[in-house]
Design goal:
The complex is a heterodimer. Chain A is an alpha/beta fold. Helix content of chain A is 51%, strand content 14%. In chain A, strands 1, 2, 3, 6, 11, 12 and 13 form a seven-stranded mixed beta sheet that branches. In chain A, α3 runs parallel beside α4, α4 packs antiparallel against α19 and α20 packs antiparallel against α21. The N terminus of chain A is likely disordered. Chain B is flat and about 90 Å long. Chain B contains 14 helices and no strands. The N terminus of chain B is likely disordered. The chains are: A alpha/beta, B mainly alpha. Chains A and B meet through α1, α3, α4, α19 and α20 of A and α2 and α13 of B.
Amino acid sequence: MKTRRLSAWPAAWITALCLGLALVGPGLVGVAGAGEKLVVWWNKGYYKEEDESLQKIADAWAKENNVDLELTFTIQDDLGPKIISALIARRVPDVAFCFFNDFHISPKFAWDGKLTDVSDVINELKPRYIESHMSTGRLYNNAEKKWAYYAIPIEAQALGSHYWKDMVQEAGLDPDPKKIPMTWKEHWAFWRKVQDTLRKKDPAKYGKLYGIGMTESSRSTDTIYNFEQYLFAFHGEVITPEGKVVAGEAKNREAIVKTLTFFTSIYKEGYVPPDALTWTDADNNVNFNNRTVVMTPNPSISIPGAHFFTNKDNYYNKIGSILQPASPIDGKGYPYLIAVKQIIIPKDAKNPELGKKFIKHVLEAKNFLQYVKGSNGRWFPSFKDVGADTFFNDPKDPHVYLATQQHTKYPTRPFYFSYHPAYVQVYTENVWGKAISRVVTEKWSNEQAVDEAVTRIEQIFKSWK
Amino acid sequence: MSETTTVAYHGAPPRRERWLKRTLLGLTFCSPLVLIFLVLVITPITYMIYMGLDASIYPAVFSVPVFIQTLWNTVIFVGVAVNVKMFLSLVLSALFSQENRTARILAGVFLLPWAIPALPGILAFRWMLNGQWGIVNKVLNDLGFAGYAWLVHRNTAIGAAITYHIWKYLPFWTLIFVAGRRSIPKEMYEAGVIDGTSPLQKFRYITFPMLRNLYLICSLLSMVFTLGDFVIIKIMTGGAPGDSSHVLATLAYRYTFQMGRLDWGIGTFVTALPITLLFIFILIRWVK
């Protein structure tokens, strides 16, 4: 009995010790390796080539500079919350790059004063930058009451549209991208016609085919992208560059109502898949690849890009890419909305200066070209010298060349959160997705739904004083 | 016995010293658990309550238009999912407590949903319910009925989440009730047979009274678990359409991990805390 009692002592304490070590162990390891250790959290690419090229660039730099580099790749849906948790808990990496930084993280945490001022890095890279990309890194720090660069923009995307050429041809229409009507009314009528014709021609095969794969869901960032891009087509604005809400002004309200009416009409008329109201960001890609939609607007060329590695015939011959149709208001073009992806250095980083050196190395033209090429044109580089490479300027490429033109030939504009961080909340609440749902599922009028959305935006901005 | 008496007579420590020794020994044995409990349970909960005491959070949380609907969704999700699941578990446990080969094989098959990881299970449900090419609509169409966009309407979207919850967790609670049924002395049923009771009377007068406490404890436990269930709604509907299918857990996740507003996330959870604590309080009282 005595022996048994004594043996329980070490067992209990060993259990506690193990649990204790599990809790504090990683911290101890971190302390022991501090100094020349650099922790980098990086967004896992869509294609393995992206990760491989960054790993190669990083390894070479770490070896050359004798740095103990801890580079981890995480998918965006996990990395965003991970970075936010780290910033709140103040247990952060030295460098963090996530595709959600611009949408959810940089503006809010710059506002809170939790990011390192990286103006020195930006100034050094300034001659190479595309101005509209660079400006998205300039954010307001409410803790120190100053504007500065708190994020380093590196690559961007803009809204294009992709379609199955063979389906268009089967509908008896010309699938050549140059022959797709690019005036507003005719453009959308074209996709309606493809759907109607194919459904009529072969109901068994195309009975459930939809002409327009438009994401209209409140759970997808694509909805925001689509809505605000087409809001520009209707000449509407939500806030000014100074951060003042102007959505309620008559001209803008009218434009927002028209934009919302466009989205809800194509849905209610049956040209958009019913589940588009619940799609995630990946679902328009899935539906396009499954050939259940003829065309889909998408904020990058990830759709044809994926086919490049698996099916060259699809990439070069069967999938067509086009830009956006002219404004229904004046028949002219309008700026392309660009989402510029950014690297951040948290203020609590242990080694921010080493982090800056690492970033500058990755962004050197020869290195960054390798990395960004790995994404196969999904991202357009924020640096003129990299963007000038033949990879981005080959007219024979039906997709990358077109995307390049969006950034080089046409005017571009940043998202509204570059003007005011409160807009991050507007995006997170997905007010436009909600407005679409109000009209489609709850039978509100477009005007009522817009008024609710505008009121909510005004409320959000008031709470960010 | 005589040996003990001898020891006590010659060298027994004073009463106080013995008490102290016993207490210290007990405390030493308990200390690892107390330490773990302090670090992993008490500290975060205390910190959460401390942060939740900031009254300025609540006007912001309550002013979000979706909050009231989210609260109501949570009540529906927890109330319907838990009660339907528990009732079905109780009924099905009768089948699986049969002592024959068929029941054992069926029980093995029945356990499969419990063994399937949540994520692929929810995604499979989502695809099955797709309005355009889901198998549910395909079957309906083949039978001559019109299809329906199940996840596009709030009621059916929440209904889908509840259905998945029941499908996934029914086997677990059924097993618990099977164990409960098997612990009922057979003599009671034998006495019932002698008295000429019908199967329904057996359930009413023997089985249910014997399982009553277990049923209530399981229901309360399940309510606590379900209240914090984030994954099903997040993956199945993501709050869509138009933020109408959120529950408190998904809304709190949005505030904390998408907006970086830990205070709002905590504020959202804290609104559910009184209900959770009430369940736990009743649970503890019942167990006593």
